Known about the structure:
This protein is mainly alpha-helical. The chain is built from six helices and two strands; from the N terminus they run ααβαβααα. It has helices at 3-10, 14-23, 38-47, 67-76, 80-116, 118-136, and strands at residues 33-35, 63-65.
Amino acid sequence: MLDFDLALLYDIETRVLNQSVKRNSKRFPSDFMFQLTEEEWNDMSSQIVMTSKSKRPKTAFPFAFTEQGVAMLSGILNSDIAINVNIAIMRTFVLIRKQALLHHDFNEQLQQLESKFDKQFRDVYEALDYLIAKETIPKERKPIGYKK
């Protein structure tokens, strides 16, 4: 996301957002945030009707934030919206972690069942393969027409 979109989302001015980022520059490595080049900004501006070049100085190109950068940004801003977004992000991470652990346990249980009942599974698979193969073999057709 671009800095001015995030500023709008967090209900702060773009310059306030960028100042906060500059004050906390160690928290934003290149895989969290980068600044668009003049060529990228011009290309993007020509494709997006809503982008207003007049509000931004000619030499100040916008910053683009990755999802990690957005998460970090919500942690350094002090607006109520940013605080709520940061809390929601943390809760989501915890929920995803719980789901991953539950899913991992489920996979382990399935593998245990498969190893325990491996022969039975093999027999079922062989029977299914036989039935599928039997259905795909064309049956001999009776000739159509009069018999002599």
